[in-house]
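Recall the central idea of this unit: under ordinary conditions, the amino acid sequence of a chain determines the structure it adopts. In this exercise we apply that idea directly, starting from the sequence alone.
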Amino acid sequence: MQETPRRRLPVGAEVQPRGVHFRVWAPRARHVEVIIEDSGQRTLLAPEDGGYYSGLVAEAAAGNRYRYLLDGKRALPDPASRFQPEGPHGPSEIIDPTFAWSDEGWQGIDWRGQVLYEVHVGTFTEEGTWTAARQQLQALADLGVTCIELLPVADFVGRFGWGYDGVDLFAPTRLYGTPDEMRRFVDEAHAFGLGVILDVVYNHFGPEGNYLGEFSAAYVHPSRTTEWGAAINFDGPDCGPVREFFMANAAYWIDEYHLDGLRLDATQDIHDESAEHIIAAVTRRVREAGQGRRIYVTAENEPQRVKLVRNPEQGGYGVDALWNDDFHHSAMVAMTGRNEAYYTDYHGKPQELVSAAKYGFLYQGQRYSWQRQRRGTPTRGIPRQRFIHFLENHDQVANSGRGLRCHMMTSPGRFRAMSALVMLAQQTPLIFQGQEFAASTPFYYFADHRDGLARTVREGRAKFLAQFRSLAQPEMQSFLPDPADPGTFIRSKLNLAERELHRHVYRMYRDLIALRRRDPVFSAEDITVDGAVLGPESFVLRFFGPDDERLLVVNLGRDLHLEPAPEPLIAPPEGCAWHVIWSSENPIYGGRGTYPWDYEESWWIPGHSAVVLVPRT
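Accordingly, the structure predicted from this sequence is:
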């Protein structure tokens, strides 16, 4: 009997000492052949229990291109292809994952102490490649970020896109380079002390180029749907191989690309009633794949269910951190004064920002009028660093309709002050590419589809944005960019020369990150945070560390004169006075200079500003 080769993955083409071993789940087929396109060789794969087919092809080698022929009718790419050099409709390529890694001493990243930086590889540089992005790693390390969060890279149809329409989940898109070029990016990031996590989409498949249904109808649930179409089948009939497929995919990125974790997209549409929810299973599997390295898993969850970040022993899923849209929405209303559409239930008041800093989610079970239902779950007992706060991300910038960055929709002073709040609060901060230097380039929604689908996507995008009363007006609809227009994609590319042109903003972010990471209070884990409202648009946060304290005073409105000032949180420790260690109005950041802080008589708090105070005797 021939010995079954040892495999890294349950499915796909894997290079072995005696050839290439192929394995595919195709319960719809009566027989499956693999065609090596380079030579034209056809090999019949042997059936296994459960609808699998497998076999060793001695003549095949890394670099060969191949397809599976089902029942002699149609040649299809591999559902577990490691690379699609001609795109999702083309043949798959056999990839040898052997790589000369230099990160043997890399221990991964912890859920504490991270400063995340979200990157879309195609627009991060003019070239839009792994090689070009690799040239920017030094700058990111100098900025002080600790972890790069990549938008999805699973291959998709077209010349450009966000990546959320991926259909080849094991194949990093050919648009950014080869698999080894992605590995080289990760390897060098580790050399600079930067972690790398990947956004993965386990809630739906892209609308074009998805051939999974040709192999099995069980990849999608027979009755459930999501806002993007059919739901993935994690608990329906024949779901076992589907669960295995996704768990293997998650572990694959950790194993073969040395990634430090994942960001799970739109987990509210990952439906599963199994004894072990697929989110918990994926999280467990990626930690196992790390083989001792620390693995960081974050998630987007619109209903704000903290069950995701509770330990499995507590009935949770074991995820490390959740995105906090509540904070973003309140912050944007505070900066812009606009609370239409999904900003409706936020007023941007100081109490909201204080509460977000103290508790994370603002909605923890209260009624949410925009959705006509209750929203959120209680966060008691959840460490603040398990909530990810941001002023920008790919969705929110694009949802402005014209791709506007937040600094373009508010005053420079408010932007600086709110940046200080995000970067110094105890929640984990996330920066969207270019935010750190006030990028003037927009970030639009773009997707390269064929005519019929392109029209559907364009109309769907316009309909989605119409929830904003201002964007629903005919005068604005004509200004909304066409997602399929190559110019929409090209205009979204960063101009990295603006790091120097806008160096005052860049220096502010660099200094804020340094303060967060090096100050003995802001960097401490054992810390208590309290806050109070000082005025209609002003508030204070007090950070109580083990041996010292800090005061962050934020005023998003007009100059505020506190006389009297009956608020105990602004009183310095006994025998001390407050001294400024950081001010958003520092001229080096583009500010107008900092008021003298003389508290003997009264408090004067300048408008559109933030200041950090330290007690000194």
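The mean pLDDT is 95.
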